[in-house]
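Q: I'm building a small set of examples for a reading group on sequence design. Run inverse folding on the following structure and report the sequence directly after it, with nothing in between.
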């Protein structure tokens, strides 16, 4: 059966997320969450960001209705729909129940989590169970789903994430928030057709760390088909100048570009958005 991948919500689309939908022998919704930066340049989310958040949440819920399997790569609020009424009023308990009801749910296990991660995972478990998926593998018809062992969330070792390889007609690897910093060997070994990965958060890295991430991502580009590089990396408007060799490579795209859309960097442009309303800001 053919496989189709649709990026649903990413930072290049104006929200914090790496949610995507894969259609195949089973329909899989990866990381069904979306959030915004609570503070950026001393400012709260702009109205346009709040509108985008609501729009993306709706899209994720619609795809959720068609999904058989839901995957949660780690316990940040931009990776799952929590059973709360937080996140700018964009979620409700009923919404979360509806999304997860009747689905097979695979998530990062509780092992190695820091305090906040564990708290979120446990509050999820108060309402809904999931299969701790670290290192496991499952087959559904012609489709195989393989989870990596835990790897660090970029340089943050106390925030473990799991990557997932979905293999059928194509081989897709969702590398979550590895940021071109962790999990590199695993991705090289798997050699997928398409990688979806958070790029390095260049705004808080030294120039040596940026150089290292750049050469690691170029090594990945050599052994993979295409790379969607997005999320943390796009919170700095100068991201292309920070990794010039990576962005010269035609295999590398943001999620919006992969869909043929222009990038919509709302968080990185927050101050600009407020200034348009209030020029003296
Ligand atoms: Zn994260």
């Amino acid at each position: 059966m053919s496989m189709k991948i649709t990026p649903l919500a990413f930072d290049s689309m104006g929200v914090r997320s790496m949610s995507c939908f894969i259609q195949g022998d089973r329909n899989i919704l990866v990381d069904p969450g979306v959030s915004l930066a609570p503070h950026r340049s001393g400012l709260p989310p702009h109205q346009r960001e709040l509108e985008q958040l609501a729009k993306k949440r709706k899209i994720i819920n619609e795809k959720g209705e068609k999904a058989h399997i839901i995957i949660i790569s780690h316990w940040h609020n931009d990776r799952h729909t929590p059973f709360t009424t937080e996140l700018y009023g964009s979620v409700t308990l009923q919404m979360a129940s509806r999304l997860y009801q009747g689905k097979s749910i695979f998530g990062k296990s509780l092992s190695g989590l820091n305090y906040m991660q564990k708290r979120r995972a446990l509050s999820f478990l108060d309402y809904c169970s999931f299969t701790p998926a670290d290192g496991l593998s499952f087959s559904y018809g012609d489709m195989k789903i393989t989870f990596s062992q835990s790897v660090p969330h970029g340089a943050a070792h106390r925030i473990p994430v799991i990557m997932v390889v979905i293999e059928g007609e194509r081989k897709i690897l969702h590398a979550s928030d590895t940021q071109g910093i962790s999990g590199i060997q695993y991705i090289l070994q798997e050699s997928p057709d398409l990688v979806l990965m958070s790029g390095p958060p260049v705004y808080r890295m030294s120039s040596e760390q940026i150089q290292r991430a750049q050469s690691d991502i170029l090594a990945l580009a050599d052994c993979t088909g295409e790379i969607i590089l997005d999320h943390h990396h796009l919170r700095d408007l100068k991201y292309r100048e920070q990794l010039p060799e990576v962005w010269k490579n035609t295999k590398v795209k943001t999620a919006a570009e992969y869909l043929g859309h222009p990038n919509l960097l709302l968080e990185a442009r927050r101050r600009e958005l407020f200034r348009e309303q209030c020029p003296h800001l």
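The chain has one domain: 4-277.
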